[in-house]
Amino acid sequence: MIHNGKRPYQCRECGMSFTRTSHLIPHQNILTGEMPYKHAECRKGFHQSFQLNIHQMIHNGKRPYQCRECGMSFSTCSHLLCHRMIQTRKWPYECPACGKSLSMSSHLSRHQWNHQ
């Protein structure tokens, strides 16, 4: 069903269509503010199950992502990547006009106004 281009599952809130109900339901949870996935210990709620899984690592102390340079460990890959960018000062967003690198796309957009 994914490859035929059809998106039969439509959001009642905004009209956006999806190929699977498993994609529609989290989308609707975000729009309605519903957070059906709750952490048993702290009762923090999440829109999607993967968000709860990541959050649980905070409570169980698992930090499977380790920096090769300094040995620090992180609960998520994205936290390790941010750490590495800070260490190396290599930011992913580069200004085409002057070559300056920035850490966030919004910072690049704001920076580019300086060239106008």
TrEMBL record:
<keyword id="KW-0539">Nucleus</keyword>
<keyword id="KW-0479">Metal-binding</keyword>
<dbReference type="InterPro" id="IPR036236">
    <property type="entry name" value="Znf_C2H2_sf"/>
</dbReference>
<feature type="domain" description="C2H2-type">
    <location>
        <begin position="37"/>
        <end position="64"/>
    </location>
</feature>
<dbReference type="InterPro" id="IPR050826">
    <property type="entry name" value="Krueppel_C2H2_ZnFinger"/>
</dbReference>
<dbReference type="GO" id="GO:0003677">
    <property type="term" value="F:DNA binding"/>
</dbReference>
<dbReference type="GO" id="GO:0005634">
    <property type="term" value="C:nucleus"/>
</dbReference>
<keyword id="KW-0677">Repeat</keyword>
<keyword id="KW-0862">Zinc</keyword>
<keyword id="KW-0804">Transcription</keyword>
<dbReference type="InterPro" id="IPR013087">
    <property type="entry name" value="Znf_C2H2_type"/>
</dbReference>
<keyword id="KW-0863">Zinc-finger</keyword>
<keyword id="KW-0238">DNA-binding</keyword>
<dbReference type="GO" id="GO:0008270">
    <property type="term" value="F:zinc ion binding"/>
</dbReference>
<feature type="domain" description="C2H2-type">
    <location>
        <begin position="9"/>
        <end position="36"/>
    </location>
</feature>
<protein>
    <recommendedName>
        <fullName>C2H2-type domain-containing protein</fullName>
    </recommendedName>
</protein>
<feature type="domain" description="C2H2-type">
    <location>
        <begin position="65"/>
        <end position="92"/>
    </location>
</feature>
<dbReference type="Pfam" id="PF00096">
    <property type="entry name" value="zf-C2H2"/>
</dbReference>
<feature type="domain" description="C2H2-type">
    <location>
        <begin position="93"/>
        <end position="116"/>
    </location>
</feature>
<keyword id="KW-0805">Transcription regulation</keyword>
